Automatic annotation (TrEMBL):
Pfam families: Hydant_A_C, Hydantoinase_B. Transmembrane segments: none annotated. PANTHER family: 5-OXOPROLINASE RELATED, HYPOTHETICAL 5-OXOPROLINASE (EUROFUNG)-RELATED. This is Hydantoinase B/oxoprolinase family protein. It comes from the Bacteria. Residues 93-601 form the Hydantoinase B/oxoprolinase domain. Residues 7-61 form the Acetophenone carboxylase-like C-terminal domain.
């Protein structure tokens, strides 16, 4: 019963509000506004149309309720949380849900910090081209750090592939390595290290969780230094395949086995020492994740941790369903520079609160390397729909549950082994993100490419993705010179780049007016010019050099990009979307990246 009544002025009139001392309220109690809840340090005002409930952990939650039901009362049975025991985990406590959201994310972030601090390559230490995540007992993504979207949405496929291959028969002290694009990977330079997590060592029981880290290695073999060949036609030409190989067994790092594997075949890795150093860093990052997960279980108990791993996925699922409720059906055709196209149809089922994304009609598997494995397509769809959610939720497997994909086998987005795929991860993924946003009418095209630039010889190997313009939307302009959508890596600091490699960064600047005009303008691309001090082989793998990034709702497209080679003898070679060239000392490679599309008529 209320301790007293008080006059409360709200909603433009006076109300008779019951007053409840906070210590008198018990888990399961629900109070409808108007009401006052008095604590020793303050007073909580429950407005009309709102209710306050006490959770099983004695937390006070305020929730909006229909004004028609707003009658002052206290009801121990009105809430689904009511009168449950403190150890009942079938329904999430809202406060603990948020706590575990952040705890799981923090573990992945700690893994990323460890990986950055212990890695050797510029690619991982400086460019931060890596991702870390934790997974439940079934291999489903639970939480991740805000790293590379194309990694995060696809890593679960790698973990599930490993579980299926081993039939879940793991032992403490084991770690595995994989990069197979046809089994959950993205492309061969992205190497995933997976560690099963045992809470009690030496028990022989099944793993309770998994942690994984994926890093882009500067070279994994293939026909060009940097393992990003513009003209590869089979997966074998792109580097060494690692298909769920043991990396650590009984706590011992299997270095000789790894060296042997990386050095085999017609196109072996060029800098095995660096590969091994970065793989050791990934093992260390995973060990940090294991340590933190074990500590979490010790603090909260195994049942609680496992329950909230499911709750955060369920919460993400419901958040995506709420986003789907606001969407309309849409379709889009997205042409690419090489003549292929992505076709998609999005159909919203209002009753089931689901979205069906149908890629029927997309171009067939290509003879080039634009093919994007199924895991990449799932990662892009997951990313796009996650960005439509207004709530602060982790990217996890729950986001995918309301999304149903139709991917014809043998098409550009679901190729068959041994198709070349190196550009599918970096170029087709960007095109697919733009196409999905276009179909949903959410925003104009971003630059639609990662502008992948590699150079190297037998001594040096380097890879970078170059920023450009982002697309404009209904109430915002695009941003200049940013990494967009499926990539989130840094560019190497000029001082580090020139210290570690025989190059001079002559210019790096915003490319004026390259963003598409509109009521809201697209972001501008950039100009990047590098002079080489040694003989090198360089490769550019890019998009939107022929077809401009689209505008939306009357907005104009952004400018296309350009790739040029200025020889030391004064001649200039104009390159297409993809090219491989031999460079001599003094040659300059210039890359101009596309701008984003504009939105709305001016």
């Amino acid at each position: 019963q209320p301790a007293a009544m008080a006059d409360l002025y709200t909603k433009d009139r006076w109300h008779a509000a019951p007053v409840y001392p906070r210590p008198h309220l018990c888990p399961g109690d629900t109070i409808s506004g108007p009401a006052l809840i008095v604590e020793t340090t303050g007073t909580n005002v429950v407005e009309p149309g709102w209710c306050a409930s006490i959770t099983q952990h004695n937390h006070l939650i305020l929730e909006k309720r229909s004004l028609a039901a707003a009658t002052p009362f206290i009801s121990p049975s009105a809430s689904p949380r009511s009168r449950r025991g403190l150890q009942d985990l079938s329904y999430p406590d809202p406060v603990f849900l948020e706590i575990f959201n952040h705890l799981f994310r923090a573990i992945a972030e700690e893994m990323g910090i460890t990986l950055r601090n212990t890695s050797v390559s510029v690619n991982i230490k400086e460019r931060l081209d890596f991702s870390c995540a934790i997974f439940d007992q079934q291999g489903q993504l639970v939480a991740n750090a805000p790293h590379i979207p194309v990694h995060l949405g696809s890593m679960s496929e790698s973990v599930c592939s490993l579980i299926a291959k081993t039939q879940g028969a793991f032992s403490p002290g084991e770690v595995y390595v994989a990069n197979n694009p046809f089994d959950g990977g993205t492309h061969l330079p992205d190497i995933t290290v997976i560690t099963p997590v045992f809470v009690e060592a030496n028990t022989g029981a099944d793993p309770l969780f998994y942690v994984a880290s994926r890093g882009h290695h500067a070279d994994i073999g293939g026909i060009t230094p940097g393992s990003m060949p513009p003209h590869s036609r089979t997966i074998a030409e792109e580097g060494i395949l690692l298909d769920n190989l043991p990396l650590v067994r009984q706590g011992e790092f299997l270095e000789q086995d790894l060296r042997s594997h990386l050095g085999q075949g017609p196109y072996p890795a060029r800098n095995i020492d660096q590969n091994i150093a970065d793989l050791r860093a990934q093992v260390a990052a995973n060990a940090r994740g294991v340590q933190e997960l074990v500590a979490l279980v010790q603090r909260y108990g195994l049942q609680t941790v496992q329950a909230y791993m499911q709750h955060v996925q369920d919460n993400a699922e419901e958040s995506v369903r709420r986003a789907i409720d606001r969407l309309q059906d849409g379709q889009f055709v997205y042409p690419m520079d090489e003549g292929c196209e992505i076709r998609l149809q999005i159909t919203i089922d209002r009753q089931q609160r689901t979205a069906h994304i149908d890629f029927t009609g997309t171009s067939p598997q290509q003879a080039n390397n634009l093919n994007a494995p199924r895991a990449i397509c799932k990662a892009v769809v997951l990313y796009v729909f996650r960005t439509l959610v207004e709530d602060d939720i982790p990217l996890n497997a729950g986001c995918l549950k309301p999304l149903h994909l139709t991917l014809p086998e043998g098409c550009l987005l679901n190729p068959i082994y041994p198709a070349a795929v190196v550009a599918g991860n970096v170029e087709t993924s960007q095109a697919l993100a733009n196409a999905l946003y276009g179909a949903l009418g959410v925003m104009a095209a971003a630059q639609g490419t990662m502008n992948n630039f590699t150079f190297g010889n037998q001594t040096h190997q380097y890879y970078e993705t170059i920023c450009g313009g982002s697309g404009a939307g209904p109430d915002f302009a695009g941003t200049d010179a940013v990494q967009t959508h499926m990539t989130n890596s840094h560019l190497t600091d000029p001082e580090v780049l020139e210290w570690r490699f025989p190059v001079i960064l002559e210019e790096f600047a915003i490319r004026p007016h390259s963003g598409g005009p509109g009521r809201f303008c697209g972001g501008n691309g950039v100009l990047r010019r590098l002079r080489f001090r040694e003989a090198m082989t360089a490769a550019i793998l890019s998009g939107h050099r022929r077809i401009p990034p689209f505008g939306l709702a009357g907005g104009s497209p952004g400018w296309v990009g350009e790739n040029r080679l200025k020889r030391i003898d004064g001649t200039t070679e104009y390159l297409g979307s993809r090219a491989e060239v031999d460079l001599q000392p003094g040659d300059v490679f210039e890359i101009q990246t596309p701008g984003g599309g504009g939105y709305g008529s001016e």
